[in-house]
Amino acid sequence: MVQKYQSPVRVYKHPFELVMAAYERRFPTCHLIPMFVDSDVISEETSEDQSFHKIERRCKLDVDAPRLLKRIAGVDYVYFIQKNSLNHRERTLHIESHNETFSNRVIIHEICCYSVHPENEEWTCFEQSASLDIKSFFGFESTVEKIAMKQYASSIKKGKEIIEYYLRELEEEGITYLPRWSPCPPSPTKAVVPVVIPALPITPTISIEAPPECLNEIQVCKEGSSSPGSLNDALVASPDDKLDADYIKRYLGDLTPLQESCLIRLRRWLQETHKGKIPKDEHILRFLRARDFNIDKAREILCQSLTWRKQHQVDYLLDTWSSPQVLHDYYTGGWHHHDKDGRPLYILRLGHMDTKGLVRALGEESLLRHVLSINEEGLRRCEENTKVFGRPISCWTCLVDLEGLNMRHLWRPGVKALLRIIEVVEANYPETLGRLLILRAPRVFPVLWTLVSPFIDENTRKKFLIYAGNDYQGPGGLVDYIDKEIIPDFLGGECMCEVPEGGLVPKSLYRTAEELENDEIRLWTETIYQSASIFKGAPHELLIEIIDASSVITWDFDVCKGDVIFNIYHSKRAPQPPRKDPLATHGITSPAGNNVQLIDKSWLLGQDYSMVESPLTCKEGESVQGSHVTRWPGFYILQWKFHSMPACATTNLPRVDDVLATLQVSSHKCKVMYYTEVLGSEDFRGSMTSLESSHSGFSQLSAATTSSSQSQSSSMISR
């Protein structure tokens, strides 16, 4: 498995030339880096106008590794080759390094870059990316990997400290400014003169640690080879896409190098695959924490949550959801100031809540919607408190008062609704609960706890503090977590709490099972997105009739399963009514309404209908948004077609895998979730689906015809 490392952007509030002067003081050796024994210049060259300087060094390190491991490898020191390319004209320093020996067993590759801050030319930025690939090492692969990760992590903060140490040293010497490079007339006697120093004899070494030039802000992230992005990509992204180290500390908290790197890499992957729908950094970090910063696991649950939020329009819940009056009157929960850590405080008087009455009056889905709105409000309050208190606040504290809890709270449908709510919240709002204070737990509480605890994540359960009777009033109780001035009056405090006292919901407000069922169907089908299944030989097609020329067809779809090909066709005549049994060749019937075919098999492409966009292949997990400006009225057909893998080119015989795949209908099924909208050209700009600023190779055909006023379109695919 390849280990990859990515640093955030580190900022030195000093000019580039001064930082370079401090950097050069680290050679040939640095007393601040005990493991950095020595370095020798192998080659060096300078351009005629002195604007470009290239130097190659061989660095000698004394790695802190077990003596036994060194004896087995037969070495005492570790050697690296490091190449520096300093461009005075562009004010950049690119550093590339790799291990010199045992490269057939261990491959370490690092890239560092110093550059001018994009918004302040008097500041300097630093970035680094690295990869570690241990193919084999005498059976000690795991040990070597741990040593490398430990050495990297321990040197990250030290790297910036060393530069700042030499900057202070320069200041003490009275050097606070160095002039920038400026071109001068070339000298007729000067030429490019490479200086080559013979390399020292190479002794067997092991490649475990990075050279000191790159012992800076490395971030560690353990992930598989499928992780997106290459080493060079890490240093060419636009500044707006990068995370600043100071920003991370201010708004996200103190993260370890491993955690910073995981956040950066997962964030970059989301930018590549979910453009326009990137969750906030705090939200990404919550999912990483929920999976112990395992990128693959965090990515899986985060993508599932993003799809869920999109399908049910959860992002708009606070603006669209209006709580029924019965919730205002009988739901015994509400926000109440904040705890001593600045976290928003939510109080729930569960013992006073008539769970049976609320379920009978509202239904499970309405209760769930209300709880989701509470969580969305909690996220908003966390952002506000982060600004107010000047430190990262990413979760809230919940105080649950169980006074009055009895057997009626164990009503089976009520417990079922509670478990459903816990399941949804755990999946989509991980690491939002900082602390749960359970007060006045009665004897019946262990029964309820036995029922619900298996559905609560272990990390969440560790945040529970349970007090029986009046234990919360003593040492180690409520006053340790909440300021005395805001303890609610019903708990012996002096602060008035606006949380409703609850009570029994009148039976006159109860609704019939049929009414509740219809309401639940309405709640969870109120989505602008539709789902469709695509099978081999049975594409899904959507008909759009255009009356006015120059209308704009926009689309937004996610490929939930399998790979599909997206096409757009135009026809002057309406297709036949959609066929409902497209899977007859498989001997099965598709679910009603989620697979429709419009193009008749007797139609000829180019005669009965024409293609107005080049086909776009979309991979599983991709989000695709785009638009097409129509030229002609008529009927436009959006088609999602099953994408078959290309057959083996070296033989005409079918592969075994292909034969087996034909026996499994499930392997020939794809699924998409889509939304389309037709806009007038005057309404296109500013629409929630307009993507006029997004372009890709998808619109090659359209781009070719735009010049002849036949068509205009733009499209974006997020990979």
UniProtKB/TrEMBL annotation:
<feature type="domain" description="CRAL-TRIO">
    <location>
        <begin position="323"/>
        <end position="499"/>
    </location>
</feature>
<dbReference type="Pfam" id="PF03765">
    <property type="entry name" value="CRAL_TRIO_N"/>
</dbReference>
<dbReference type="InterPro" id="IPR009038">
    <property type="entry name" value="GOLD_dom"/>
</dbReference>
<dbReference type="InterPro" id="IPR051064">
    <property type="entry name" value="SEC14/CRAL-TRIO_domain"/>
</dbReference>
<protein>
    <submittedName>
        <fullName>SEC14-like protein 1</fullName>
    </submittedName>
</protein>
<dbReference type="GO" id="GO:0039552">
    <property type="term" value="F:RIG-I binding"/>
</dbReference>
<dbReference type="InterPro" id="IPR001251">
    <property type="entry name" value="CRAL-TRIO_dom"/>
</dbReference>
<dbReference type="GO" id="GO:0039536">
    <property type="term" value="P:negative regulation of RIG-I signaling pathway"/>
</dbReference>
<dbReference type="InterPro" id="IPR036273">
    <property type="entry name" value="CRAL/TRIO_N_dom_sf"/>
</dbReference>
<dbReference type="InterPro" id="IPR036865">
    <property type="entry name" value="CRAL-TRIO_dom_sf"/>
</dbReference>
<dbReference type="GO" id="GO:0005829">
    <property type="term" value="C:cytosol"/>
</dbReference>
<dbReference type="Pfam" id="PF00650">
    <property type="entry name" value="CRAL_TRIO"/>
</dbReference>
<dbReference type="Pfam" id="PF04707">
    <property type="entry name" value="PRELI"/>
</dbReference>
<feature type="domain" description="PRELI/MSF1">
    <location>
        <begin position="3"/>
        <end position="175"/>
    </location>
</feature>
<feature type="domain" description="GOLD">
    <location>
        <begin position="525"/>
        <end position="678"/>
    </location>
</feature>
<dbReference type="InterPro" id="IPR006797">
    <property type="entry name" value="PRELI/MSF1_dom"/>
</dbReference>
<dbReference type="InterPro" id="IPR011074">
    <property type="entry name" value="CRAL/TRIO_N_dom"/>
</dbReference>
<dbReference type="InterPro" id="IPR036598">
    <property type="entry name" value="GOLD_dom_sf"/>
</dbReference>
